[in-house]
Design goal:
Layout lengths: L1 H16 L2 H17 L1 H5 L2 E4 L10 H9 L3 E8 L4 E7 L5 E3 L5 E3 L12 E5 L3 E2 L5 E2 L5 H6 L5 E5 L20 E3 L4 E3 L1
Parallel strand pairs: 1-2, 1-6, 6-9, 9-10
Antiparallel strand pairs: 2-3, 4-5, 7-8, 10-11
């Protein structure tokens, strides 16, 4: 998979090179588009990563969802078992540094059980127009999403919508992508 590894490295380089003001402007647009979309408005549970580093920001969206009274669940990774579960948080105080140095819900946080109107926001370096994503290479989201029955939403900078993300048979596409410029139904 040399092509996939090279693409991932190039996208990471481009993300790191983005001027901070460009990122902030794009993230404000993404945030506005997400909170106005019907899937966000109607969801009972929001499953969402806690952004870090070069990931598209989700912290503002988490704060908004909590203020809106939504159930907010963030991922906890179990590297030895190659799996990820989501756990409910009621504030950022429910998070602690976990695997890979990322913020994860503390052990006491209630585990997610499927609900009718769940929305899962997935991280990615890039998406293609069919909703396939190039993630950070660990596969946790594809394994989780293979059993997830809710709506899958990708958020991304528009300049990171690309033609080919080197999808594989086990990759799970999202249902919609929201960028700073537009929404793509997949």
């Amino acid at each position: 998979m040399t092509g996939k590894k090279e693409l991932r490295a190039e996208l990471i380089r481009l993300r790191k090179a983005m001027p901070p003001e460009t990122r902030l402007d794009a993230e404000a647009e993404i945030f506005g588009r997400v909170v106005r979309c019907e899937q966000y408005k109607s969801c009972e549970a929001l499953l969402i990563y806690v952004s870090d580093g070069i990931e598209t920001d989700t912290r503002r969206l988490i704060r908004q969802a909590l203020a809106d009274g939504k159930q907010v669940f963030t991922p906890r990774c179990f590297k030895a078992e190659d799996r990820m579960t989501f756990h409910r948080i009621t504030s950022f105080d429910d998070l602690e540094e976990g695997r890979f140095g990322l913020l994860e819900p503390k052990a006491h946080c209630e585990q997610y059980l499927p609900v009718k109107n769940a929305l899962c926001v997935t991280p990615a370096l890039a998406y293609d127009l069919s909703g396939h994503r190039l993630g950070f290479g660990r596969g946790f989201y594809d394994r989780f999403l293979s059993d997830f029955e809710g709506f899958k939403l990708g958020i991304c900078y528009d300049s990171f919508i690309i033609e080919n993300v080197f999808r594989e048979s086990f990759d799970i596409p999202v249902d919609m992508i929201i960028t700073d410029k537009r929404e793509y139904l997949c």
